[in-house]
Amino acid sequence: MHTLGSDDVIIGQSLSLSLSLSLYIYIYIYIYIYIYIYIYIYKLLLIFSSSLIVNQCRQGWREYESKCYFFSTDTKSWPEANAHCMEQNSHLMSIQDIHERVRSSNPDGTRICLRFTFKIFWIGLNDLIVEGIWEWSDGKPFIEYLSFWMSGQPDNWNNTEDCGQVVGYNFGHWNDENCAAKRKYICKYINCKEIWKPSSNGLIFYLLPFTEDK
């Protein structure tokens, strides 16, 4: 019977060490390949989602920061403009951040600052329900610190001014106006929503286009 000598023990230990090293190398390579594939797929999803965001707005509408805007060329009263926007699954524009207050897109695709256009547009601002309590027609909150009224406005002149407009020639400040006045108008809807959902393999990115409820 063969008995294990010191050489056999050394050889056995070497084989064991070699197998352990090989196993670690295989695990390392597997993890590296897995991470590489994961990052590659993630980048493809980002590229794909970016292309969706750019092309989500309907024809004649322009995208800015995941929102779509329509600048009318015709004029309507505030109620007519509001109804028309809702027929398009949108609302008269509400202003929810400082960027939106002064900047959006022209129908020709160029960026404009509302404060530097000479036009007047109806927006969703109104106090039709309670005098002096200003609201947005789309139900979004009225954020007080974003108020941008012209000096001395709103004044409800002759008790007939319950609708809000943005006045380009006055640096984009707001003015209250008789709702029956004929003005151009801006419609707006949310372009898309981005959802991150946890999964067993990490985070999966979803891009779901939708239009707001009327």
TrEMBL record:
The chain crosses the membrane at residues 23-42. Residues 64-188 form the C-type lectin domain. SMART domains: CLECT (SM00034). PROSITE patterns: C_TYPE_LECTIN_1, C_TYPE_LECTIN_2. The keyword Transmembrane applies. Gene3D superfamilies: Mannose-Binding Protein A, subunit A. Keywords: Disulfide bond, Membrane, Transmembrane, Transmembrane helix. InterPro entries: C-type_lectin-like (IPR001304), C-type_lectin-like/link_sf (IPR016186), C-type_lectin/snaclec_domain (IPR050111), C-type_lectin_CS (IPR018378), CTDL_fold (IPR016187). The keyword ATP-binding does not apply. This is C-type lectin domain-containing protein. It comes from Fundulus heteroclitus.
